[in-house]
TrEMBL record:
Membrane topology, from the record: Peripheral membrane protein
Species of provenance: Nostoc sphaeroides CCNUC1
SUPFAM superfamilies for the chain: P-loop containing nucleoside triphosphate hydrolases
Compartments in which it is found: Cell inner membrane
Protein name: MetN, D-methionine transport system ATP-binding protein
């Protein structure tokens, strides 16, 4: 796809970063040790001064190149786990390490160069699609040619047509916005990619294609991917490992060869039924 970034984003108008952010070359493994997350609600129960438990005693390790599906019934703590990993929120207790370095010792900007979170509702912040895709690369001080190559590569990979590049957020459907948000994360080639229900607004064909692109990405670049997904067939297609969160507890942490998908589906349906009817 041939397009000129200058058409969408006059480079001269872009902020020049004081020190360009390089693309990452470091390894990326994560370790969580006894993570607890409690949220203080205004209506706390008497005697429950800690607040409402969202995640409890989560310990796990994530290795480079892992493709992890995070599943569980609604409110199980899946999104909260991703938000913790991106430091949008802090744990109440416990520690998180990236490459053996404790999170608090890593400047947030450095952490987020390596690790990118794509939430379900991502905003283009008033930019066109072309501008939004180029912006993180401009911040990294890359050349115009490299930016155009990267954006072209990932828009092609995700089957994003060039007509979308001049559109703003309101001119995109929910599914189109979701694909653009994923492309914006992929252009910077993060070492760790955190995806919160990336296929919730996509049709079956596009969702399945996305799983193939992500699998290929992790195989060729050793990208570590953690993805929350309610669609078991997509999780099955994509993952090398599965985390099952149930009411804030890590109910299972299994390699793909250990997973009994039939039992897993049944246990998820059962948990949802219990949640719905308060059993
Ligand atoms: N900011 C917050 N304040 C209070 N409670 C919160 C907050 N964010 C999340 N929670 C609560 O934490 C629990 C876990 O929420 P989370 O969004 O992590 O679950 P989830 O597994 O991603 O759910 P879903 O599958 O529905 O997206 C829920 O009970 C939710 O109500």
């Amino acid at each position: 796809m041939a397009w000129d970034i200058g058409y969408f984003f006059p480079i001269s108008l872009l902020p020049i970063p004081h020190s360009p952010l390089p693309l990452n070359t470091a390894k990326a493994t994560l370790r969580l040790e006894q993570i607890n997350l409690f949220t203080k609600l205004k209506t706390q129960l008497p005697g429950n001064q800690q607040g409402y438990p969202i995640l409890q005693d989560i310990s796990l390790e994530v290795f480079q190149g892992d493709r992890i599906a995070i599943v569980g019934s609604v409110g199980g703590g899946k999104t909260s786990l991703l938000r913790l990993l991106n430091r949008l929120i802090e744990p109440t207790s416990g520690k998180i390490y990236l490459e053996n370095q404790e999170y608090h010792q890593i400047p947030v900007i450095q952490l987020r160069q390596m690790l990118v979170l794509v939430l379900q509702e991502s905003k283009l912040l008033g930019m066109t699609v072309g501008q939004a895709l180029a912006y993180p690369l401009v911040l990294r001080g890359l050349s115009k040619q490299t930016i155009e190559q990267q954006v072209s590569h990932w828009t092609e990979q995700l089957h994003i047509p060039s007509e979308w590049l001049g559109r703003t957020e309101v001119q995109l459907s929910a599914g189109q916005r979701q694909l653009v948000a994923i492309a914006r994360a992929l252009v910077i080639q993060p070492k760790i990619l955190l995806l919160d229900e990336p296929t919730s607004a996509l049709d079956a064909g596009t969702a399945s294609h996305l799983m193939q692109v992500l699998t290929q990405l992790s195989q060729t670049h050793q990208t570590t991917i953690l993805m929350v997904n309610h669609q078991m067939e997509l999780a099955q297609m994509f993952c090398t490992r599965l985390l099952h969160l149930q009411q804030g507890h890590l109910f299972a942490n299994q390699r793909v060869s250990e997973i009994n998908w039939v039992e897993l589906r049944e246990s998820l349906i059962q948990a949802e039924t219990q949640d719905d009817f308060g059993f």
